[in-house]
Specification:
CATH superfamily of chain A: Pyruvate-ferredoxin oxidoreductase, PFOR, domain III
Mean pLDDT of chain B: 96
Number of strands of chain A: 6
Distance between the termini of chain A: 27 Å
Number of domains of chain A: 1
Number of domains of chain B: 3
Distance between the termini of chain B: 35 Å
Oligomer: heterodimer
Largest interface: A-B, 53 and 50 residues
CATH class of chain A: Alpha Beta
Number of helices of chain A: 7
CATH topology of the largest domain in chain B: Rossmann fold
Low-confidence stretches of chain B: none
Shape of chain A: globular
Structural class of chain A: alpha/beta
CATH architecture of the largest domain in chain B: 3-Layer(aba) Sandwich
Low-confidence stretches of chain A: none
CATH topology of chain A: Pyruvate-ferredoxin Oxidoreductase, domain 3
Strand content of chain B: 15-25%
Radius of gyration of chain B: 26 Å
CATH superfamily of the largest domain in chain B: Thiamin diphosphate (ThDP)-binding fold, Pyr/PP domains
Structural class of chain B: alpha/beta
Helix content of chain A: 40-55%
Largest sheet of chain B: 7 strands, mixed
CATH architecture of chain A: 3-Layer(aba) Sandwich
Radius of gyration of chain A: 15 Å
CATH class of the largest domain in chain B: Alpha Beta
Number of helices of chain B: 20
Number of strands of chain B: 22
Strand order of the largest sheet of chain B: 3-2-4-5-7-6-12
Mean pLDDT of chain A: 94
Chain lengths: 191, 532
């Protein structure tokens, strides 16, 4: 079993926090994984992505070959489209509906939704609304992780365990907010 | 022991600690910064070892050399272009040799993710005639760094580790081994070996030349250099180095007839093993991340008569850019998958940009306005977040070459007729390499204006501390000989736009050297402070 995930978003949206939780949960479940990320200049408000590979045997390539991703998990709808060439025909796209508009020529967002719907199976999540409901707009990334948790080959409890560890240093309230965000995202994706 | 999740950078750092590291030095630079960040974060920092950011890579290399002279294990790390800055002590450290284990880590950036070139550090290892080790994966990053400290003390030479972005910045589980302590009561280096007067240097260089056969011997026997026979009937072979090995292995099981392959992890590379591989084959494919370093050696001028060599030099693999699974699949004659397409849907690019509220944006707006009316002006810039000022909406700068070059190029430009000649440089870049050219300009009282963007941090690489910031920077500039009347401080905020534009205009009009400090804290740092 190899499960390939493209994590996508804009610099500052917290996709590396999603990656941290998945990586730790994978290790706890005895899976091998490899996760390539982007640092440096690209992080400044630009498109960022992380290639994440989970497997029960050793995986080698740090980049997912085109056409071999099982899941695109995006914290931003336009960014979800950027990596379609990586997706398997039977792959899944899980994306936030909230556009992050920091470029002058952002495509009309309804067109973006339509284009995602034209692709393979997809789930669009009201991440901003749910994050706010959970207590902080900054928790959109955990809403999205919650939505993806239905598809990832990882146990829900393990993901939650490492959300707690990730936010522990920021206090109990932040932990609660992020766990709630995860739960709301998970419920939203079930609908 | 349990496995630990580490970035490639962190695997190197942890291996250094486990090797009995006493001192580590670095200057921030993508993709190497996380080595020092990891060392600083560990509880052993300050107790078991010293880990420090330095003012630039040359200083970092020399401090590590000093620690090695003192008999302790030292490591210096930087990005590939940092090795250019450190090249002088690096080359000469091969002549002095290492006393305590000395490991030099250079992280290359094929594909220009966050760099101005994609130079290949393996040439530097070859140039200095020292060992260079190139890990293929995270486990090897750990294992080879441990090995590097042993080899450095065994051969009495610095040992280089070459990383590339995809290894430095990817995470995987790593199994670690029992740590060892530092060198106890070490002897200092032998003076005449370390005093590179010509007579000493000649002798030491002969010793370095004599050591080459030992390095080659090591390469032949090193277990990380793996020669694997091909399947019966196969007449093709593959040479893979470092990270490229992973792309090759990704597709290995899909190859109908398994080729022989040689995986290379050391330079000098194992020539005998390579000859053994070549004997078995008619066609050789060389896959390496970076320049065609090995391929060039193999081709020489005469190639391999009767055999075909494929790689970066015949176009099988692009000569520039990072390897991808697709490039390697194609080089192995495998079908390349194409994934889903978004057809003719217009997907706008999202390039990196200055953060909303960034002080640099306000400075650039004021500078652009102040320069209106001059038709021979030029703004020379430098390396940092503010290089993004080259892009719309600012389009405020015309050059970016290397650390500190803004100041020296502005001086050269001014002397060739550029007016106004403006340099724009960040506070940390100024401390790194802007001081010396500014001193040069003071001596000539060059007609130019230097704008130091003092945001108090090394922002682009993740907010490491800056050396030349705040009030000490003002004093430094006075001490350097900047005329007090033409040392101005502005606070780049939208509400100060008119005021700042006026001040910049005055200094542009002044025919002599002026320095303007645009001082406001990085918006990211401010945000972090507010949140915590």
């Amino acid at each position: 079993m190899t499960y390939n995930v493209i994590l996508a978003g804009v610099g500052g949206q917290g996709i590396l926090s999603i990656a941290f939780v998945i990586d730790q949960a994978a290790l706890a479940e005895g899976l091998y994984f490899l996760q390539a990320e982007v640092h440096g200049m690209s992080q400044r408000g630009g498109a960022v992505q992380s290639h994440l590979r989970l497997s029960d045997t050793q995986v080698y390539s740090p980049l997912i070959p085109q056409g071999e991703a099982d899941l695109i998990l995006s914290v931003e709808p336009l960014e979800a489209l950027r990596y379609f060439s990586y997706l398997k025909p039977q792959g899944v796209v899980i994306s936030s509906r909230s556009p992050f508009v920091n470029i002058p020529d952002y495509t009309p967002v309804e067109d973006v939704y339509r284009e995602i719907a034209n692709g393979p199976a997809s789930v669009l999540v009201e991440a901003d609304k749910l994050a706010k409901e959970a207590g902080s707009l900054r928790a959109e990334n955990m809403v999205m992780l919650g939505a993806a948790s239905l598809y990832l080959p990882l146990q829900e409890d393990n993901l939650k365990k490492f959300i707690k560890i990730l936010f522990k240093s920021k206090g109990e309230k932040v932990v609660e907010t992020n766990l709630k965000a995860f739960e709301l995202g998970r419920q939203a994706a079930k609908k | 022991m349990d496995k630990i999740i580490l970035l490639g950078d962190e695997a190197v750092a942890l291996a250094a600690i486990h090797s009995g590291l006493a001192a580590a030095y670095s200057y921030p630079g993508t993709p190497a910064s996380e080595i020092m960040e990891f060392l600083i974060r560990q509880p052993g920092n300050g107790e078991k070892y010293v880990a420090k950011w330095c003012v630039n890579e040359k200083v970092a290399m020399e401090e590590a050399l000093g620690a090695s002279f003192a008999g302790q294990r030292a490591m210096v790390s930087f990005k590939h272009v940092g090795l250019n800055v450190a090249a002088d002590p690096f080359m000469n450290a091969a002549i002095t040799g290492a006393n305590g284990g000395l490991v030099v880590v250079s992280a290359d950036d094929p594909g220009f993710h966050s760099s101005q070139n994609e130079q290949d550090s393996r040439y530097y290892g070859d140039f200095a005639r020292i060992l260079c080790l190139e890990p293929a994966n995270h486990q090897e990053a750990y294992d080879l760094t441990r090995e590097a400290f042993d080899l450095s003390e065994k051969f009495g030479l610095p040992v280089m580790i070459r990383l590339v972005t995809r290894l430095a910045h990817s995470r995987a589980p790593v199994a670690v081994r029992e740590p060892r302590g530092k060198n106890q009561n070490p002897k200092y280096g032998y003076g005449p070996d370390w005093t590179l007067l010509p007579a000493n240097a000649r002798r030491r260089y002969q010793e370095l030349l004599g050591r080459q056969k030992d390095l080659k011997n090591y390469a032949e026997n090193c277990l990380f250099n793996e020669l694997s026979p091909g399947e019966k009937g196969s007449r093709s072979g593959v040479v893979v180095t470092g990270l490229a090995y992973n792309y090759f292995r990704e597709f290995y099981n899909r190859l109908a007839l398994k080729p022989a392959f040689l995986k290379i992890a050391t330079y000098p590379f194992p020539e005998q093993k390579l000859l053994k591989l070549i004997e078995q084959i008619d066609e050789l494919t060389v896959i390496e991340e970076g320049y065609p370093f090995i391929e060039r050696f193999i081709r020489g001028v005469a190639g391999l008569p009767g055999k075909v060599i494929r790689g970066k030099m015949d176009g099988t693999i692009p000569a520039s850019g990072e390897l991808t699974p697709e490039i390697v699949a194609k080089a192995l004659d495998l079908p390349v998958k194409t994934g889903l397409s978004t057809g003719d849907f217009r997907l706008p690019a999202r390039p990196p940009q200055l953060c909303p509220g960034c002080p640099h944006g306000d400075t650039y707006k004021a500078l652009n306005e102040a320069l209106q009316g001059y038709d021979r002006a030029n703004v020379f810039s430098d390396i940092g977040c503010y290089t993004l000022g080259a892009l719309p909406p600012y389009k405020a700068i015309q050059t970016c070459v290397c650390m500190g070059a803004s100041v020296s190029m502005a001086k050269g430009g001014a002397e060739a007729g550029v007016y106004p000649s403006v340099a724009v440089i960040g506070d940390s870049t100024f401390a790194h390499s802007g001081l010396t050219p500014l001193f040069d300009a003071v001596y000539s009282n060059t007609d130019m204006t230097v704008i130091i963007l003092d945001n108090g941090t090394v922002a682009m690489t993740g907010a490491q501390p800056s050396f030349g910031t705040g009030e000490p920077l003002d004093r430094l500039l006075i001490g350097l000989g900047i005329n007090k009347d033409h040392l101005r401080v502005i606070i780049p905020l939208p509400k100060n736009h008119q005021l700042n534009t006026g001040i910049i205009r005055e200094e542009l009009a002044y025919h002599g050297l002026s320095v303007i400090i645009a001082r406001r804290e990085c918006i990211q740092i401010l945000g972090d402070k507010k949140r915590s």
